[in-house]
């Protein structure tokens, strides 16, 4: 009973929060000097319709998403084995860790000029930057998980007769799944931010480019539309991974949120 | 004791174990000699830090002695083996496996096919009274239930020796009493060599045929006492005079060791 009423009230609060946000946004957009830059919800909605009708919207969104997923997927596919090797073999860790720590201090955006010179402004440049950004975040997170596997569980498996191989597949891998999912969440987030930065600097399509071009023509409605869409996409991706996390790792002890 | 019980299952000779701690070398075990007989129930008591867990880890093959040997059936213990099951103080259940999956894990490692190991594991889940929770995850269980699963998991691979490190330490008095009786019954049914660490003298005297009293700094064996109280035992045994006499005797000896440490 209590849980249910709590749920209702929390969704009521969410709606109220959204409504108030819209009201404030509308009020701000009505201020004459600001209104030309921060256009109101109605204008943004008109932009949404017109961009949708001329077909640019679907094209830009799908191109951006494609870039995010290709860079991110390559990042994930490489981060998992690298993280496991680092956690399992000290030698690999000692060899790889300094490089990862070093590259992590560099914002991926700073690599963009270099990558563009090396690979041009094509798709491979963007995929590369997104790959680097998401890989670094994910490898560190997943490595923490592999390293943090409770030694008592490893011992429990060993005294039941587990070989190193059994321990790896039956203990280390499942124990790391929650960290992989956290890594996926962080990796997707960083892929998305890096993507927009990459598209803002050099691209002929995508949401970042749409924002950039619109700002040149002072189409602030389209700029706002682009910004909001990026936010919505990020939000949906995050929720999707959270949902997966709940489904896959339901065995975990409840953590305080 | 019958002749059978006098067969030596585990033999420990001249065992020393030191750790390199922050304040230099720490001697956790010094010159430990011990024989554990086949199918014997032996309890280890002693103050905190006297090396009980260290000794168990060496017997389990999880740790190597600095010098001396630990043997099982005449051959040196070099690493962990399914012949020696361990029940850890912290349950150590795999949280991503259900109760039945935890219990059958050791059987899976032995290469038993799916159907058979499920059946076999179910037997032990029923034995510890958790049939209705076979498909529950450890997070859904109470401490006492988790410890039952840990015991079932250790039993399922049918080890010759069971090493238990304060398995009931974290439980309330009632659950503890219940599990003690269950353990006694199980040991009666499926005789195994049980090496059982506890802080609780009452528990040691109730369960054990022999009680090993350890002292600390450095960790060593002080005395081994035979408990000549007939089996089967249960909680009512605690009212018997012979039980009480043993308990008082051992308690006073252990108390002396505690005082040593407190000094
Ligand atoms: N891995 C380790 N590294 C360094 N010192 C250790 C290690 N393991 C145990 N020790 C030390 O060895 C001594 C014996 O530890 P052990 O855990 O065997 O004691 P115990 O008798 O099991 O104590 P308790 O009853 O509190 O569980 C302690 O002083 C402990 O600090
Ligand atoms: Mg201990």
Q: Brief description of this entry?
A:
Chain A is mainly α. Chain A has eleven helices and no strands. Chain A is globular, with a radius of gyration of 23 Å.
What would you say this structure looks like, in words?
The complex is a heterodimer of chains A (257) and B (263). Chain A has 257 residues and is mainly α. Chain A contains 11 helices and no strands. Chain A folds into 2 domains: 1-32; 39-249, Orthogonal Bundle (MetI-like fold), CATH 1.10.3720. Chain A has helices at 2-30, 32-35, 41-53, 56-88, 90-104, 112-119, 123-147, 151-158, 164-201, 207-216, 220-248. In chain A, helix 6 crosses helix 7, helix 7 (123-147) runs antiparallel to helix 9 (164-201) and helix 9 (164-201) runs antiparallel to helix 11. Chain A is globular and about 75 Å long. The mean pLDDT of chain A is 88. By secondary structure, chain B is α/β, with parallel strands linked by helices. Chain B has 2 domains: 3-83 and 161-262, P-loop containing nucleotide triphosphate hydrolases (Rossmann fold, 3-Layer(aba) Sandwich); 96-158, no CATH class. Helix content of chain B is 36%, strand content 26%. Chain B has helices spanning 52-60, 99-109, 114-127, 143-156, 173-189, 201-207, 241-262; strands at 8-21, 24-37, 41-45, 67-72, 75-76, 84-87, 161-165, 193-197, 210-215, 220-226. The longest helix of chain B is centred in the last third of the chain and has 22 residues, at 241-262. Classes of the chains: A mainly alpha (257), B alpha/beta (263). Chains A and B meet through helix 8 and helix 9 of A and strand 6 and helix 2 of B. Residues 19, 21, 26, 28, 48-54, 219 of chain B line the site of adenosine-5'-triphosphate.
